[in-house]
Write a structure and sequence with these properties.
The complex is a heterodimer of chains A (232) and B (170). Chain A is mainly beta and 232 residues long. Chain A is built from 3 helices and 11 strands. The mean pLDDT of chain A is 92. Chain B has one domain: Protocatechuate 3,4-Dioxygenase, subunit A (Sandwich), CATH 2.60.130.10. In chain B, the strands form 3 sheets. In chain B, strands 3, 6, 9, 10 and 11 form a 5-stranded mixed sheet that branches. Chain B has a 4-stranded antiparallel sheet with strand order 5-4-7-8, with no helix packed on it. Chains A and B meet through helix 1, strand 1, helix 2, strand 9 and strand 11 of A and helix 1, strand 4, strand 5, strand 7 and strand 12 of B. Strand 1 of chain A pairs parallel with strand 12 of chain B.
Chain lengths: 232, 170
């Protein structure tokens, strides 16, 4: 079978062990990764992951008395493949902390208040044009424990299913203009400046934005091409 | 058309929502339909370089049905599990059949805080000839073969260090 998913490029993908991010040195394999042939298993689905994972919460910001605290934003993200072809039907999981930098997760020990009106997790299915839209609030920055001053810049986590098993993408989206972006070991693991810049959302023109929300646009490029075999 | 560069992968982080991590580790039925085949459990422990078991590691699997097919509407061959405080995960599934040119196998990916990219590996049921197993140095191939105890297959993952699990780049 011909190889249809291109190899990762070291300048546009992390190579595993990252300076300033200590856990990477305990968890990334010390042996070189083995190159394996791509067979039917790697180049088949899963497609329609929503058969196993139900879509939840299209709006994290809420309304009226139930409105989450923070700057209202409207995320408009497009899932495309390496040909730029939209991946309609892609399942996308999104999660982020509240405006004070606190996650809903019980393991988050940061001394910042939870927001009773904010539950920071959504699962969406990309519509026409591979588009997903989420009304939410802008996440805050927070310090990473025991790191001597590493603060995570505001960011949004994405988990995306593309056309095939090898298209799976887990990443983070950043906000333009934040000085914390310059030193973040996770964002800066992407060595190529242009590839790194593409991990930062674009603030769309504010005229006629929906409900006074700032609109951020983003593109998620999953591995694979239009010709990547897909099950009927 | 100019090829777009795939988005840079980044860590899942320590705060992947609990509700997302749970509830998708039983592949023996989908939408109320029970899959045909031999029901098995795949379980194991995930540890890091110092041997410490890892809590809340997310593992996803992708496999063929009992006939070696990926297009069976009554078997959805994808699942997700998370480790507990002892580093233990578990899937209930159907033993996959051999598919074209491949021995029966289950594809795994590992997502976790400190892993900047998903780690891909493959679990095998025995040492049958397989082109992906052949891609691993022969001394390490045994680490990809699950240990059978009845209908339970044990597949431990050591991310780094002595006895490290072979992982793939593709």
């Amino acid at each position: 079978m011909s190889v249809l998913i291109g190899r990762r490029e070291p300048q546009t993908q992390s190579q595993g062990v990252e300076p300033g991010y200590e856990q990477t040195g305990k968890r990334w394999p010390s042996q070189a990764l083995c190159r394996r042939p791509q067979t039917a298993a790697e180049l088949a689905g899963p497609i329609a992951v929503q058969r196993r994972l139900q879509p939840v919460r299209g709006d994290l910001a809420g309304h009226g008395a139930k409105r989450a605290i923070g700057q209202l934003i409207h995320l408009r993200a497009r899932v495309v493949d390496e040909d730029g072809a939209p991946v309609q039907g892609a399942v996308v999981e999104i999660w982020h902390c509240n405006a004070a930098g606190k996650y809903i997760h019980p393991n988050d020990t940061h001394d910042a208040p939870p927001d009773p009106n904010f539950y920071g997790a959504a699962r969406l299915v990309a519509g026409d044009g591979g588009l997903i839209e989420l009304r939410t609030i802008k996440p805050g920055a927070y310090p990473v424990p025991d790191t001597g001053g590493w603060w995570r810049p505001p960011h949004v986590h994405f988990s995306v299913w593309g056309r095939v098993w090898l298209s799976r993408l887990v990443t983070q989206m950043f906000f333009p203009g934040d000085p914390l972006n310059e030193k973040d070991p996770i964002l800066n693991a992407i060595r190529d400046p242009q590839a790194r810049a593409r991990c930062i959302a674009r603030l769309a023109p504010t005229e006629n934005g929906p409900e006074n929300a700032l609109v951020y646009e983003y593109q998620l490029v999953v591995r694979g091409r239009k010709g990547t075999p897909q099950l009927p | 058309m100019r090829r777009l560069v795939p988005t840079g992968e980044m860590t899942l982080g320590p705060f992947f929502p609990r509700e997302f991590a749970q509830g998708a580790n039983d592949l023996t039925s989908v939408e109320g339909k029970k899959a045909a085949g031999e029901a098995i459990e795949i379980t194991g422990r995930v540890v890091q370089a110092d041997g410490q078991p890892l809590d809340n590691v997310v593992l996803e699997i992708w496999q063929a049905d009992a006939q070696g097919r990926f297009d069976n509407p009554d078997f959805f061959g994808w699942g997700r599990a998370a480790t507990d405080q002892n580093g233990i995960y578990s899937f209930k599934t159907i033993k996959p059949g051999a598919c074209e040119g491949r021995a029966p196998h289950v594809n795994f990916l590992v997502l976790y805080s400190g892993l900047m990219r998903a780690l891909h590996t493959t679990m095998f049921f025995d040492a049958s000839k397989d082109p992906v197993l052949d891609a691993v140095p022969s001394a390490h191939r045994g680490r990809l073969i699950a240990k059978r105890e009845g209908t339970v297959y044990r597949f431990d993952l050591r991310l780094r260090g002595e006895g490290e699990t072979p992982f793939f780049d593709d």
